[in-house]
Design goal:
The chain is of the alpha/beta class and 465 residues long. The protein has 15 helices and ten strands. It folds into two domains: 195 residues, Up-down Bundle (ABC transporter transmembrane region fold); 247 residues, P-loop containing nucleotide triphosphate hydrolases (Rossmann fold, 3-Layer(aba) Sandwich). Helix 3 runs antiparallel to helix 5 and helix 12 packs parallel to helix 13.
Length: 465
Amino acid sequence: MSADSSNLQNFLAEGFQDFIRDVMTLAVILAIMFSMNWSLTLITLVPAPLVFYLTRRFMHRVHRLYHSVWRRRAHMTALLSSVIPGVRVVKAFAQEHRETHRFSERSRVYMDAGVKTARSFAMFHPAIQFTTSLGFVMVWTYGGYQVITGHGVTLGTLIAFISYLWRFYAPVNNLSRFSQRMERAITSAQRVFDVLDTTASVTDPPGGQALPPIAGRVEFRNVTFGYDPDMPVLRNVSFHAEPGEMIGLVGPSGAGKSTAINLLCRFYDVDAGSVTVDGHDVREVSIESLHRQIGVVLQEPFLFHGTIGENIAYGNPDAPLSRIVEAAKAANAHDFIMQFPEGYDSMVGERGQRLSGGERQRISIARAILKNPRILILDEATSSVDAETEEAIQNALDRLVHGRTTFAIAHRFSTLRNADRLVVLDEGRVIETGTHEELLAREDGVFKRLCDIQQRSSQIVAVGG
């Protein structure tokens, strides 16, 4: 996309200006040539239909060639985009030669398409120059004959006309080359507008109102949803959360926990039933107003390339530094931030690569604290970190969830002990609800079984260690 947008920008900024200049130059010189000698001017225009025909044929051919080049380049860059982030896995499994071979093959295919396109240009431009040279020959022949026979053309007029003829055919050649730039721009524009014209699967309702400030009551009412309509992930799911409650979503992988969160955020629309916030169906309010009152802390926090302060203030860009620092302190992030030479102005690198996983997570928590949402979503927020870091993150989360309606997803059930209620999902249905202690007391319950499995796994790991 960056290359396509650059091609389009260059065409609009430079190519189109060159086109206007050449057209105006042609018009002025043609008028001067007609005033000098109309018959020589008509001879000059004889090659024009052939130039036009060759250019049309060439544009039709090069259009297909450019599409081929862009497709093959996309295949090559797609391979790079998938392999480079996983370079450690490639090395760990000794697949360097395999990936190098795959890249070499796609590079070769891309190069072949480029060579084929270049070969077409190498044939087209000489053909145009040869055609315009015929115009020179015809003007010299006809004009020389007129001078020799004395039929109205003097030698001075012929020489002056020839000098303008050079200035006439130069823009003609430029315009023939302009087709190359135009076809490249057209191909790039098609790709850019394909992206811009992509319709969102979820859009604001016609006349949708902004969601007013909420208390935070959330209700799933007989919700059914499937990414594939024929394979529902959630089946007639109903549960609710009162303002300020913490609800833990529990269940085996694929039970529908993350799907329920996606529906609350309205990343998708339900197939049946409804999801309401303070009695407002999320499908009937603007998406932006809904998202402004929801904060998310993910398992793999995403940080943008920029400073630590900019990432914390992402949900509230106008926040002063004092509030950013306050949020960082609440997230147990201030101390490690101040260890950097530039403090909050320190760059985090691409995707936050200069920070550890625990540091990125605390920055993400600070971002949610600064946004101050009424509804909070924690999706495996303490997984994949060591015990000391988990404790720091958990303390920060305890401050974050206070007074907010919170939905927490966790495979480590011990982190959900403070939840007001647990909703146990299995195969897309609500199987059990209750507090942590109530569900553990059910000897034949799904949550009790999952906890026993997790406890046995922990004991095996401890013995093995």
